[in-house]
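fold-stage: in
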Amino acid sequence: MKTNEQSRRQAAALRWVVRIFMILVTVIMIYPLLWNVYSSFKTNNEFLTNAFSLPKSLAWDNYARAIEKSNLLSNVGNSVLIVLITLCVIMVCAVPCAYCLVRYKFFGSRLMLNIYMAAIFIQATFIMIPLFLQMNALHLLNNRVALAVLYATMQFPFAIFVLSGFLRSIPRDYEEAAMIDGCGPFRILIKVIMPMAKPGIVTVCMISAMAAWNEYPVALVMLTDPEKQTLPVGLANLYEVQRYATDWGALFAALILALIPTIIIFLIGQKQLIQGMNVGGLKG
């Protein structure tokens, strides 16, 4: 009895330690975001006097200056265009590729899947110089469509990893029933597999969209025209301008405006995102 009671006390103490630790981690992660939010409503005098104090009033004109003093709207439009093209390319290429690698066994299929898995660890920054030279030789610099295709290519290994785990969890019985009804491989993919793999597809689309939306180094190198630059590059330029102009309120306001789309995407699809990561990770 004493041993069981002692074990329960130890387990309860461990749970409380874990809870306290998680609360501390949450506070450490959330505080910079909250500081960014209320700093976007502070005047320059308030920020320079005490950067960590709460604003005395809400300076909404910071958001107006953030838009006026930068190409923020143009940058947002460029980012939206690039993200949409990226998602279209992933849907057209990664989903059929993952389906073929999982369902059809042919010579080299396992090797191809392993290569895709290994490519997850290869970042574009590691091959930036040859990538730039190749894009320059193909006259694809300052080309938003080419950059979107490049982003999609960068996301292919992760997309195939998640989707292959999802597709393995789908029983073959559904495909066999569809074949009996006269469906071909393409129609089976569109009508049967993709609806059943919706959580995995949503997960891939959300993570790929956020990755393309926030990507900075490749966009900085590939897009030098200010009218074609994406939001992260535009924010970096705004930071350089506002830092010397000491308009910190406008800078923080621009950062908040840049966060809003990713927060909305996560809030809308968080259920599918969590489900997709769990199933894709377990079955992959």
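fold-stage: in (second)
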Amino acid sequence: IQCNTIWHVFFLFFSFLFFLETTPSPQSDPVITTRKVVSKGQNQVIIEELAILTPQDIELLCNLTDIPNNPPYITGYWTKDGQEIENSEETVNRNNEQYILKKTFSIQARDLGNYSCIFRENQAQVTFVLDVPVIKDKRDKPVVSYTGDSVVLECKLKHTPNTWNWYKANNTEKGLINVTANPLNYKIFINRNETKLTVLNLTEEDSGKYICSAEFDIKPSESYVELKVLSYTEPLKPFIAIVVEVIVLVTLILLWEKCKKPQNDNLSNDLCSEQTSNLTRDESNGVENNTARQRKLEH
């Protein structure tokens, strides 16, 4: 009897464990984020930017008001990146002078983009721009520094990412900057929504594109800074070029003057010789004329 009782207890115990393992746990409903935009009047286009940090289900809602004549219903549909979403068209009934068109989207990295609700009758449109936060501090001109110096490159965001990474672009690829492996060349500072990269002991090989990457759960947000490293003689090159041009020009002028001077001397000598011969000829002619007159007088 005791053995049967012990086996019965063991049977109940393992049955209870099996029940716990096979019984499904209650699933909680997914959290849905709602974004609402009110559009007033017709032919109006509204753009709403939404920062997406994590994969999520998001409900986009368009509330259209102030429609002339207030028809009992209108037709609305959704597009993604300009392409109409299949089976998204629906009839929107008037409710308290409003027309509400809404749809829930499951957003992963590949689903980011521009989602628009469009009402056919009056071409009212609301565009939701779903993307990771954009690093807007992009420089149009490169950062210029000189060999042997240090330079600080920085990026900043409105939102705080999970972490920051820095890369150096190499043609079509990018290499992760490892501060631990290169402590004499790089230092990285991170403070929540901003990061700074210090490049030490600059050489001309450090020139190039540096990429800062804010890492979010859904995908990273990247920006870049162009660095140009010059030698200290680089600013002197235009001045040196001007000096060389002046020296060449002065040399050519002196050479031209030197080559021209003997020609002038020869010309002057020729002119002097010609004038002397002319004077000699005139004198001889004068003597002959005087001699002839004397002979005539003697006769």
